[in-house]
Amino acid sequence: MRNLVFIVSWIFLLSACGGNHDYSPKPRGYFRIPFPPKAYQTFDTAGCPFTFLYPKYAHIEPDHHKGAKPCWLNVKFPQFNGTLHLTYEHLSPAVRLDTLTEHAHKYAFKNTIKATSIDEGAIYYPDRKLYGIYYTIDGNAASSAQFYFTDSTKNYLRAALYFYNEPRIDSIQPVLNFIKKDMNVMIGSFRWKK
Predict the structure, then answer these.
(1) Phi then psi for 167, rounded to 5 degrees?
(2) Sorting pLDDT into bands at 50, 70 and 90, what band is 52?
(3) d(Cα 97, Cα 70) in Å, to the nearest integer?
(4) Cβ–Cβ contacts within 10 Å for residue 116, how many?
(5) Does the domain at residues 62-192 carry the CATH identifier 3.40.1000?
(6) SS3 sequence, the chain?
(7) How many angstroms separate the Cα of 99 from the Cα of each of 11, 29, 39, 71, 106?
(8) How many C-beta atoms lie closer than 10 Å to residue 129's C-beta?
(9) Phi, psi of 128 (to 5 degrees)
(10) Which of 67-71, 84-88, 174-178 is most confident?
(11) What residue ranges do the domains of the chain occupy?
């Protein structure tokens, strides 16, 4: 019996080494993502004190979650399984700017567990009374981009981009770069109504 096991083992060993096969591991592949052409439309709804451009391949709907306020919006990107959540607040003694900006900072830095880095960039357009911070969050974080801006007296808007799948930066990076360009157009076209 021992000899039979020995012979069978040698046969398997020799057959495994017998060919001249070159093997190299292949990198993980991902599906090709077709991107629509860039085209924009204006968001200008009565009751919301702001306007901006957003892509034609996205649609905007009111936020229906419990506790949502007027002008809390979701800019949905259905073909990319992502949403840019917009929350608007009218500043008052009960709704203070310093509290809102601290919350925005805290929400952005909640991603530090999975993020490899978080960069802050200033949003500064004094001619439009638009001041804020843009957070670029690298790594496998739940939200890869967030920003807020204000006119510093009456209005405040915060935005956070989420994809509704497992956060893997290597697979969503092309989509993230594509949508970040749309976010830049939104910021560049954003206006407070008088």
Answers:
(1) -70, 105
(2) very high
(3) 18
(4) 11
(5) yes
(6) CHHHHHHHHHHHHHHHHCCCCCCCCCCCCCCCCCCCCCCEEEECCCCCCEEEEEECCCEEEECCCCCCCCCCEEEEEHHHCEEEEEEEEECCCCCCHHHHHHHHHHHHHHHHHCEEEEEEEEEEEHHHCEEEEEEEEEECCCEEEEEEEECCCCEEEEEEEEECCCCCHHHHHHHHHHHHHHHHHHHHHCEECC
(7) 74, 44, 36, 19, 10
(8) 15
(9) -110, 5
(10) 84-88
(11) 62-192
Cβ count within 10 A of residue 45: 13
pTM of model > 0.85:
no
Closest CA to 57 of 74, 38, 33, 83: 38
Q: Residue with structure tokens 């306020």?
A: 69
Q: Which residue has the tokens 């697979």?
A: 171
